[in-house]
Amino acid sequence: MQTLQVSPKGWRWYLTGHPWIYRSDLAKTPTEGKGEAVRVAGPTGQFLGQYFYNPASKIALRLIRRDESPIDRNFWSARLARAIARRKNITDSTAYRLVSSEADGFPGLIVDRYADVLVLQSLCLGMDNLLPLMLELLREQMAPRSIVARNDAAVRSLEGLPQEIALFFGEEPAAVEILQGTCRFKVDVI
Question: Span 80-99, mean pLDDT?
């Protein structure tokens, strides 16, 4: 795994607990490793964490974890299970945010639940590369009828990613009926 070093300014960002490090806050910006996980070190070489790296983005580093444990299928599966467990007490709605990007430890990934349909957005290259695994885990842990990608946010172009709306799994859902308290709504997720 490649190691990148932050500048003193990047070190100050790190100390605030911020999950991103900007390209301008790196000591060097190598072009290899685009979209991969990298080790990040402070100005004096101390280990800071493992991050997704994209030299094409202004946000060059997105925090995955602050230790050197493996980032593998089990790691992502446990993170998803924790995100799902955090929402288990939502009983008055069948539509809510299931995965909230960095807040749930998934850099650049948003997953919304609309009854039995999941809608996701991948907003960084590293997570985009992991979409096959994320889809597999979502299917295992949520058993959705369909998974739709709403990757049409303009910020994807800043990551060097195309904008698209796609059906990743299942059949294209017609309007999905959701409940919000005692109200029923039909949502066109496409």
Answer: 95
Residue 120 reports pLDDT greater than 90: yes
* Cross-sheet strand order for the sheet of 109-114: 95-100, 109-114, 117-122, 146-151, 164-169
91 contacts: CB under 8 Å, gap ≥ 6: none
Whether the Cβ atoms of residue 5 and residue 28 lie closer than 8 Å to each other: yes
What the block records as the tokens of 4 is: 């990148």
pLDDT band at 174 (very low <50, low <70, confident <90, very high): confident
* pTM (predicted TM-score): 0.93
CA distance 13 to 112: 29
Backbone region of residue 89 per phi and psi (left: phi > 0; alpha: psi in -120 to 50; beta: other values): alpha
Which tokens is 116 given?
A: 């039995």
- DSSP H/E element including 156: helix 155-158
Quick check: 117 and 146 in contact, CB under 8 A? yes
Q: Are strands 47-53 and 20-21 parallel, antiparallel or unpaired?
A: unpaired
Which structure tokens are listed for 167?
């059906």
